[in-house]
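quick one, 77 residues, struct below
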Amino acid sequence: MDTIQKYAKAIVALIGSVLTAGVFVLPVEAQPWVGLGLAVLTAAATYQVPNKGAPTDALVQGDGLAAGDDAPKHLAD
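---
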């Protein structure tokens, strides 16, 4: 289950893009509107899936991510 959560955002975006690409099998009159609708729904669904947070031990002093750091750790040496 952790693997699915790790890739959930990519899976949702992939399903949405495949459905959007499948619009070409619809009648010509409906293609633009259904394609637009699916593209908007894909963006909204991808936005709704939360990002999996980075482990808290990944943030160390001097890596440029902590408050007060002026330069990334590899540039400070």
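Residues 21 and 51 are 25 Å apart (CA to CA).
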